[in-house]
Design the sequence.
């Protein structure tokens, strides 16, 4: 398998009146072609910022991003346009991420026009739009409708269709199903899996829903306050967790079975502020097993078992 | 067991632009004292409208309760005047709203918002109400010193705790919790759910928990009602609904959730979309999306059948199987 994307020590700080906000603080990982990397964490842990940095919607503060072996961290604007053909994004909210004044057809066609696909042949582009609409399960009769006429599930299909318009290799999916009802959510997840199989797409799947991430991912990264705390293959993570945060996170998920309630680890307090964070492990103030060392030094990511990486002083 | 709440044939409509939206259709529901019922359904199923109906808070216009009865402790809530409803609301029945960010008053301190509801319903001095409000804050796990702070100084989970404190401040008999944890992160959700369960036990409150998350229901509730297009399609105990699922819609809901314990390659979602409540099908409302629908389902609306003691299903297919047996 060949590596498609590699991120090394990625950092993104925002300036705020109170000081530096460490949204993403030294995250490293790589994704192989045709695989899905799930990124989970609670709100404010920097998972969306990470996705946006990779796709260059935000500039990175420090660190490197390699796409197909090429360093694209400080890519020139002209080259960025070119590389966007390979990297696309599906946004969380299908209500605010598409232009309400454009028809479905023109929304999906817009990226093709911008990139002058098919030599600017309008008829060919229109034909492609209809093909993509079939692929994502949008009826062709909806081509001239406006987004407000459609429900959330269909709108999210437009978002997916638009991301597919340039035939990318890699898509960052930022909570693509969180705004949808469960029955519709399942339809969209199946669609995304089918597309991956057909086209060999590579996904970064950002979500806060553990059961969704387990279902769709090959590998999972767990993030807490801008740092990566645990990374391993999806099935393994649910069998054995090392990091106390991952343990607590998994035990907190309500299970839809009678009497399936697991031993719950209740975390004290809430996520601490990412502005000018204290040295040491970010999770230490809420950790039930914190040692004095945890408050002094930030733990490094260590490989405890093959392919299972954990950043914790306990191991 | 004594019933605290009985809803009979409740019908609620919204009327706008000559269109009638049938939000709740002939809904029947009973809740025993001390029980917690999970009301499950997707967006637009009429869950919140039902709760607002019980509270007498349906916005009118456009909403109208066109029929039915809501019997609470022997009296029909729909027949009470506004003044009487005001004394019931907040005192005997209270509600936790979905979004803690918008349900608190941003220009009032959290303490005075809790004290306000105590002052309205109980004869006591300002100082007494303040003391009680501080106790409530501590009960939900917020230090009493934060009494004088404003909602924007609290995080989402803390705000939801304040909302819970307000709802429980007058020891209500019935608590309506409308998606109380949907806006929260899982670890915070776990804290809030534990709190609700603990307080409910201590105070012997009956509860209707509205949610779309079958996992939360499994943890908190004794009874489950599945709602679809303004009707209850399946009703029973937790065990009956989860282990002897009957209605095709309920089965579809379970098939749509990725399972944490087993590995399924593909999910089995329900095809299609929820019908437009302004244009409901003539027969069973789930018929257009149902995989085992027959001709009868298209033209006739099925009645509730009791498949086993306390387990009701609204589907023709279930009755049929029984007949064959």
Sequence:
């Amino acid at each position: 398998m060949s590596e498609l994307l590699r991120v090394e020590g990625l950092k993104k700080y925002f300036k705020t009146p109170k000081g530096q906000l460490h949204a993403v603080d030294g995250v490293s990982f790589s994704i192989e072609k045709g695989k899905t990397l799930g990124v989970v964490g609670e709100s404010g842990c920097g998972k969306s910022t990470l996705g946006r940095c990779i796709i260059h919607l935000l500039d990175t503060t420090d660190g490197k991003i390699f796409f197909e072996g090429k360093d694209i961290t400080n890519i020139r604007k002209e080259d960025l346009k070119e590389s966007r053909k390979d990297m696309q994004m599906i946004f969380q909210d299908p209500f605010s991420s598409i232009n309400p004044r454009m028809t479905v057809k023109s929304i999906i066609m817009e990226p093709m026009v911008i990139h002058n696909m098919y030599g600017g042949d309008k008829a060919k582009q229109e034909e492609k739009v209809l093909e993509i609409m079939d692929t994502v399960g949008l009826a062709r009769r909806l081509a001239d409708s406006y987004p407000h006429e459609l429900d959330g599930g269909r709108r999210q299909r437009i978002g997916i269709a638009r991301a597919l318009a340039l035939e990318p290799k890699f898509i960052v999916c930022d909570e693509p199903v969180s705004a949808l009802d469960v029955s519709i959510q399942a339809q969209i997840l199946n669609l995304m899996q089918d597309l991956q199989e057909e086209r060999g797409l590579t996904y970064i799947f950002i979500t806060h829903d553990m059961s969704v991430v387990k279902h769709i991912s090959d590998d999972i990264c767990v993030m807490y306050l801008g740092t990566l705390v645990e990374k391993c293959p999806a099935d393994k993570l649910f069998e054995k967790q090392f990091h106390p945060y991952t343990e607590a996170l998994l035990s907190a998920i309500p299970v839809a079975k009678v009497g399936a309630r697991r031993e719950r680890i209740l975390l004290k307090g809430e996520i601490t502020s990412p502005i000018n964070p204290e040295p040491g492990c970010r999770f230490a103030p809420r950790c039930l097993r914190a040692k004095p060392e945890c408050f002094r030094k930030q733990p490094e990511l260590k490989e405890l078992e093959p392919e299972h990486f954990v950043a914790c002083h306990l191991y | 067991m004594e019933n605290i709440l009985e809803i009979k044939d409740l019908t609620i409509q919204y009327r706008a632009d000559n269109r009638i939206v049938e939000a709740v259709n002939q809904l029947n529901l009973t809740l025993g004292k001390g029980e917690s019922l999970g009301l499950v359904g997707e967006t637009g199923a009429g869950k919140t409208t039902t709760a607002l109906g019980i509270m007498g808070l349906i916005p009118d216009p456009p909403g109208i309760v066109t029929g039915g009865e809501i019997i609470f402790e022997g009296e029909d809530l729909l027949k009470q005047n506004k003044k009487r409803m005001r004394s019931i609301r907040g005192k005997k029945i209270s509600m936790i709203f979905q979004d803690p960010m918008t349900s608190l008053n941003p220009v009032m301190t959290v303490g005075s918002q809790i004290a306000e509801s105590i002052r309205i319903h109980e004869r006591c001095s300002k100082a007494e109400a303040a003391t009680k409000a501080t106790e409530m804050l501590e009960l939900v796990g917020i230090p009493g010193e934060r009494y004088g702070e404003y909602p924007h100084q609290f995080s989402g989970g803390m705000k939801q705790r304040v909302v819970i404190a307000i709802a429980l401040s007058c020891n209500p008999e019935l608590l309506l919790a409308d998606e109380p944890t949907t806006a929260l992160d899982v670890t915070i959700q776990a804290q809030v759910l534990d709190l609700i369960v603990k307080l409910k036990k201590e105070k012997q409150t009956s509860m209707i928990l509205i949610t779309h998350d079958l996992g939360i229901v499994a943890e908190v509730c004794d009874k489950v009602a599945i709602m679809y297009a303004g009707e209850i399609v399946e009703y029973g105990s937790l065990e009956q609904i989860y282990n002897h699922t009957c209605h095709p819609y309920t089965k579809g809901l379970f098939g749509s959730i990725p399972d944490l314990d087993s590995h399924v390659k593909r999910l089995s979602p329900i095809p299609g979309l929820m019908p437009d409540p302004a244009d409901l099908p003539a027969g069973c409302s789930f018929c257009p999306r149902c995989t085992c629908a027959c001709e009868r389902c298209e033209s006739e609306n099925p009645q509730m059948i009791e498949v086993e003691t306390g387990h009701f299903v609204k589907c023709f297919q279930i009755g049929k199987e029984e007949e064959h047996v």
Summary: The two ends of chain B are 32 Å apart (CA to CA).
